[in-house]
Design brief:
Elements (H helix, E strand, L loop, with lengths): L1 H5 L12 H8 L8 H7 L2 H10 L7 E4 L5 H8 L3 E5 L9 E4 L5 H9 L7 E5 L3 E11 L5 E3 L3 E6 L2 E7 L5 H17 L4 E10 L4 E7 L9 H4 L4 H9 L12 E8 L6 H6 L3 E5 L10 E9 L3
Antiparallel strand pairs: 1-4, 2-3, 2-4, 5-6, 5-7, 5-9, 7-8, 8-11, 9-10, 11-13, 12-13
Amino acid sequence: ETFAAAVDVVTFEFENVPSATAAFLAERIPVRPGALALKTCQNRLREKDFCNANQVPTTAFARVAGADGLARAVAEIGFPAVLKTTELGYDGKGQVALRGASDLAGAWQAMAGGQAGVDGIVEAFVDFRMEISAIVARGPDGAHCCFDPVENRHKNHILDQTIAPAAIAPDLAAEARDLACRLAEAMQLVGLLAIEMFVTRDGRLLVNEMAPRPHNSGHWTQDACATSQFEQFVRAVCGLPLGSSERHADAVMTNLIGDEVEGWRDYLAEPGARLHLYGKAESRPGRKMGHVTRLFPKS
């Protein structure tokens, strides 16, 4: 109550905060992107159910309530599949590939990490052509603005490069933007929503995950767009007019993971490279320490 009385608007920078707290505050002051967006996006099962309820396609999936239910879920989904935690996992954490019955014995333990009370989800493996993401901003008045869809390439389950724009047909790019806008509208989100999608071999889009915040796959907008995703997020949350998301250059954003950041001087000396360091004191394997963006003439 004291906190709500002391501020004008509440936002959050990641999904691992209690949705009950956001709902409590939302009864008193504006909470943006919103309690529904937070509750939906912090749980993979709720994400999938929300997408399906809004006629947005996802990969096939099944809930797993415990180790005993894993075999039943896999029997429903089939091999190959991926076992994931419903909450908290990211950058490949809390995820185990299932390629045959022999993988099941230790899969639950590997996914849950020895923790009790963990729920899981089994998702059908998608043989995709590429992964893309679309990021949309939505204001309190319902106005929305979408950045160009981009291609994401991963290394060791961590985003390695984002290529803007994605090399997909214009009609597929328009569909990706439409899906992002539709989901943001459905959850009455105010702020920013990033949607990660698979492009299947036969040209369909399947939503994989959502994030109601600035997203790693949108970092390229700092250097290649009239308004960055960060500024756009603040504009939306504060009720200011949304800026232009126009892309003035093509871009390739490369994450600096772990010790890769030690080459920062080389990136700083590279003509046209734009270096962004996060100021983290300690470099660890798998930790995002910064990124470098290279711009190219707009195609």
